[in-house]
Amino acid sequence: MKVTEHLERAKNPLFSYEIVPPPRGRSVQDIIDIVEALKPVHPAWIDVTAHSSSAYYNEKEDGTIERKIYKKRPGTIGICGIIQNRFQIDTVVHLLCLGFSKEETEDALLELNFLGIHNILALRGDGPNYKKEISKSRSANYYASDLVEQVKALNSGKFLDEIEGGSKFDFCVGVAGYPEKHFEAPNLKLDLINLKRKVDAGADYVVTQMFFDNKHYFEFVKEARAAGITVPIIPGIKVLKNTTQLVSIPKNFYIDLPDELVEAVTKDQKNVTHIGKEWATKQVQGLLEGGAPCVHFYIMNDTNTVVDIVKKFQK
Ligand code: FAD
């Protein structure tokens, strides 16, 4: 089922989860264990992150080609196939612009269609990981809105090259939104103009970057509605687990941590897990009371805390 269908049909609060593929060479069993652990809280759907290929080929002065590094976490599509077909839980495949040609993206979409996966989160990806050169003769998507356009074109039967007897597709496409603005955007107003470009290109819903103060989400929804964005906006949250994250979260995700949370954790460092869990529980409560259509958890493959939290909101 598509994400939009889940949202339309929901009678109880919906919860979705985002997981990451195992590092290259590691067993997929870790992922299967995670999905088993999530089963009791009935995931509405599970997102699987994508990682742009860091492989690049360097032509040395003597003409030989040297391979540098490569994709550290491959397997997004395969993992979605396992979750969807073995567990009958819908999945959302993260697809990136950066590092992929349009041709590779079209191939991935065909593969997804064969697997019965119809949900995509269309993302640009981040510059530092974008090391794979795409030949100048091939085309690429640069912004997430370009990728949304490509998927929606395929939905209406438009392949990159004309194909006789090509089917039409039915992908539901989500995009990312940033309540505390995307780090490259000069301000929230311009970032919302760009978010609207993605929606105008056909995005069916938005899922937000994590935030630790619900006020950011509610203000963002208000501003987005004022900017003419009418699709569902799903809040994304994460449970704080350790003191290291007081530095790593703002650094990696360009968001603020509220004073009250930082003070509580700094004063009582032995109880960070408990404090983080209580904080996230209050966030979920507030989001659901405020009318959020679903709560999306960035679980980073750690299920216990999130399962405990979600159980409180399920009968
Ligand atoms: P875009 O929407 O393309 O926006 C990127 C920047 O360009 C913004 O500042 C925007 O304001 C600006 N912009 C957009 N369109 C235009 C335009 N036409 N002209 C000028 N400026 C424009 N990364 C991964 O590598 N893998 C993942 O699986 C992954 N999952 C994510 C899931 C969620 C829910 C979120 C919020 C982020 C995720 N990311 C992931 C990170 C994401 O790739 C980065 O945040 C990236 O920097 C931006 O991606 P985007 O799709 O929002 O880009």
Automatic annotation (TrEMBL):
One cellular component term from this protein's GO annotations in UniProt: cytosol
Protein name (Swiss-Prot/TrEMBL): Methylenetetrahydrofolate reductase
GO MF annotations, alphabetized: FAD binding; methylenetetrahydrofolate reductase (NADH) activity
Lineage: Bacteria, Pseudomonadati, Bdellovibrionota, Bacteriovoracia, Bacteriovoracales
Similarity comment: family membership: Belongs to the methylenetetrahydrofolate reductase family.
Keyword presence, Cytoplasm: no
SUPFAM superfamilies assigned: FAD-linked oxidoreductase (SSF51730)
InterPro entries: FAD-linked_oxidoreductase-like (IPR029041), Mehydrof_redctse-like (IPR003171)
Catalytic activity field: (6S)-5-methyl-5,6,7,8-tetrahydrofolate + NAD(+) = (6R)-5,10-methylene-5,6,7,8-tetrahydrofolate + NADH + H(+)
Domain of life: Bacteria
Keyword Iron-sulfur: no
One Pfam family linked to the record: MTHFR
CDD domains cross-referenced by the UniProt entry: MTHFR
BP-aspect Gene Ontology terms: methionine biosynthetic process; tetrahydrofolate interconversion
Cofactor dependence: FAD
Coiled coil: none
Keyword entries, A-Z: FAD, Flavoprotein, Oxidoreductase
Pathway given in the UniProt record: One-carbon metabolism; tetrahydrofolate interconversion; Amino-acid biosynthesis; L-methionine biosynthesis via de novo pathway
